[in-house]
Amino acid sequence: MGGQAALSGPGALASVVAVRPAADELPDVLVLNGVSSSGKSSLARELQVLLPRPYLVLGVDTLVDAVPASLLAQDDGLSFHSDGVVEVGAAFTALEDAWYAGLAAAARAGAPLILDEVLLGGGRSQRRLAAALEGLVVRWVAVRCDVQVAVAREAARPDRTVGMAAAQAPLVHAGVTYDVSVDTSRDSSAGCARAVVDALQLVASRAPARPSG
Length: 213
Known about the structure:
Elements: E1 29-33, H1 40-50, E2 56-59, H2 60-66, E3 78-80, E4 86-88, H3 90-108, E5 113-117, H4 123-132, E6 138-144, H5 147-155, H6 164-168, E7 180-183, H7 189-199
Parallel strand pairs: 1-5, 1-6, 2-5, 6-7
Antiparallel strand pairs: 3-4
């Protein structure tokens, strides 16, 4: 992973950065990192349409939904505050380390993954995940979104606390190195997915586009 070289100007629809193209090589893992309500889940679904192998979509929300409610109510677990701030304790981190090891095992066994992540620790969190995925072909995708757009999306979602996107905005991309960057507030999910595939020089599927409605 190297530094980014911006390819887009102010009027471009998608901000795309390709620093390490992998022609004819499909990654074992695509990591999508961005704030809550930045459009990662929609992007992941569009990537599943384009990619010629069946990728599983998993991520931090999958883990959070699986933990016991008691872990969300203790200091060393995962705390969601009314202002949108999320605090991560040692007990949750230990489970997350085991979760990462399981994800890596699945990918090594032949199940390619798209990971929908919110790396609250920025570069430190990236290094933790990268260590677990060592030996696999991994590509890192920045899913950027104007904060006000993310806040508006957040307000429309009953499963989100208003304030999460704004609280996470200064954190999730800090110190993280990417292969590709897209902006879901400037292009559609389908457009961003195509940008990822094109920037990484991946071989896209000939499957028909996902029907709308």
